[in-house]
Amino acid sequence: MSDVIATIEGRIGCITLNRPKALNALSLDMVRQITSALLAWVHNEQVLAVAVRGTHKEGPFGAFCAGGDIRYFHQAAKAGDPSLEDFFTEEYRLNHLIHTYPKPYIALMDGIVMGGGMGISQGASVRVVTERSKMAMPETHIGLFPDVGGGYFLSRCAGRLGEYLGLTGHLLHGEDAVHAGLADGMVASGKLAHLWQTLIETPFENGEAVERWVTTRFDRLEKSGLSNRAEMDAVFGLNSVGDILQKLESASDEWSVQTAQTLRHRSPLMLHVVLEQIRRARGMSLADDLRMERDLVRHCFALRPVSDSETVEGIRALAVDKDHSPQWKPARSEDVDAAEVAAFFVSPWPAHAHPLRELN
């Protein structure tokens, strides 16, 4: 069975991520299959809208997409495998295609939605979560940065929520994701199978009608907003990672203490890179942000020796040796060299040769 099932049912282009044992983590082949289906459906008049979901070991739904296949990243980086370059170029191209897709694209984000899973859902015209959704951009945990357009969509969250989510990798559950502006509405997970079936059986007249119908299915939210929003804005609006840590560590409330502890476990170097990334992205178009992220990821994997790659070390500690003790270089945020951070933002390519030069 293919890792991506792409079929036309009724008037809907249906994409099911079908790699449940890996929580539907994206491989290069999966990126290519999704891209191919979306491009084929752009001019197919039968397809009014696209719906995307994941599978769990029990069947459809239950997990959306845990991100890119980080074990593959680790192996490919250590082996100097050139397919790693293709993976990021083609994944970011797919992210751009979804954001700019001319037909409604409905993402049913049940279960885990992280990293690359956010990349194939944040550009959706309707982003649906459930009470089981677990959403995050946890890349600083593995010495990476929130890519797949993360700079773009995190920087557009209200206030300084984007900086908070990008630096800490904080996990949002379904309702909180709606309050964060990273989902449009919530549907109980028990209703998803019926929603999917109705989508493919209803003779909708146009794409707008499909979109409208899905939004009428949203449940009422229980809460009125995210907790600690004022603290997030006050702390994560500060000038630098050093200022943020100092503010958190000089406070004694539970949120500040826990947030400081979280940041102290992340890659110090990448915290500085991510803060700069999100602040630059706030003034960028999606295409320019994806080009910047393509530069950053080349610095992470290819332009630093493998022994000095924060990302290779972070993945080793989390997913390969599983010792959960990454040896970050430097070990403390206070010792990060500003010149080293600045180097990440120097493009390795002239503009005319950039792998994402055609995006607009």
UniProtKB/TrEMBL annotation:
PANTHER family with a match to the protein in the record: 3-HYDROXYISOBUTYRYL-COA HYDROLASE (PTHR43176:SF6), 3-HYDROXYISOBUTYRYL-COA HYDROLASE-RELATED (PTHR43176)
**Keywords assigned by UniProt?**
Hydrolase
Phylogenetic placement of the source organism: Bacteria, Pseudomonadati, Pseudomonadota, Betaproteobacteria, Burkholderiales
**Can you tell which superkingdom this protein's organism belongs to?**
Bacteria
Q: Does the keyword Transcription apply?
A: no
Full protein name = Enoyl-CoA hydratase/isomerase family protein
Q: Which Pfam families match?
A: ECH_2 (PF16113)
- What sequence ranges are listed for the domain Enoyl-CoA hydratase/isomerase? 12-345
Q: Which SUPFAM superfamilies does the protein's record reference?
A: ClpP/crotonase
**Which NCBIfam families does the annotation name?**
PRK05617.1
Q: Does the keyword Hydrolase apply?
A: yes
Could you tell me which species this protein originates from?
Limnohabitans lacus
